[in-house]
Specification:
Strand content of chain A: 5-15%
Largest interface: A-B, 46 and 46 residues
CATH superfamily of one domain in chain A: Winged helix-like DNA-binding domain superfamily/Winged helix DNA-binding domain
CATH topology of one domain in chain A: Arc Repressor Mutant, subunit A
Low-confidence stretches of chain A: 106-110
Radius of gyration of chain A: 16 Å
Order of helices and strands of chain A: HHEHHEEH
Number of strands of chain A: 3
Distance between the termini of chain A: 37 Å
CATH class of one domain in chain A: Mainly Alpha
Oligomer: homodimer
Amino acid sequence: MADIPLTSELLSLIAERFKALAEPARLNILNALREDEKTVSQLMEETSLGQANVSKHLQLLHGLGFVDRRKEGLYVYYRLADPAVFQLCDIMCGRLVEEARERNELFSAR
Amino acid sequence: MADIPLTSELLSLIAERFKALAEPARLNILNALREDEKTVSQLMEETSLGQANVSKHLQLLHGLGFVDRRKEGLYVYYRLADPAVFQLCDIMCGRLVEEARERNELFSAR
DNA sequence: CAACTACATTACCATTCGGTTGCACATTAT
DNA sequence: ATAATGTGCAACCGAATGGTAATGTAGTTG
């Protein structure tokens, strides 16, 4: 983990970032943004979440630098700012995907 | 993120694993286990956490497969079971470490 | 101007979660 | 057997968190 002392402050900062990804709703939003930048309304449709809910999650992700925004007229477009997110998910899946694939419980027929 | 459909169930499973790392106390424990396997008592000393607290965190980490245990006499030795944890932290640090290094706020003099 | 739309913000509620206390269980020592 | 030690576990409490409803705000349209 680099050659840097893991002070309790640094551990808290790392934990804070993990916490942002520790929520299905936010992972869902980030995954929707993987394809393209999207407005809050579009994200509401794709994720089936309420407006205030999506907005709140986006504020959190924006505050931590996971997403950027761009206002255009009446709409606000959000886009990924940290592609490492999916690298993290891939690693996190790892054995998870293996197990799931074997059990064939979570995926549609392939 | 692999070529696998991200069902809501899978998103929940991924989020659950991120949540395990979204806590300074657990990151502290995992980091202590990086050097070597250790007993609950040793982990209590290194992390300055209460006994029941350490035990509870270890149960959670064990349930998700992040750590393994080995009972020897009166002691229980815990060890890392998923080295990917630190790979995740490294990535998660990324820009975080950069920013911190520049501000020189979080690290002792180097 | 007023009406409408897209989004942000606040307040509130229900749930979750980290930490502690107390107790139970297993193992070792006397 | 009794005492002492290491650990697990249930119950509880206060704080944090996700979701929602209501309200505010900026920008557009008529």
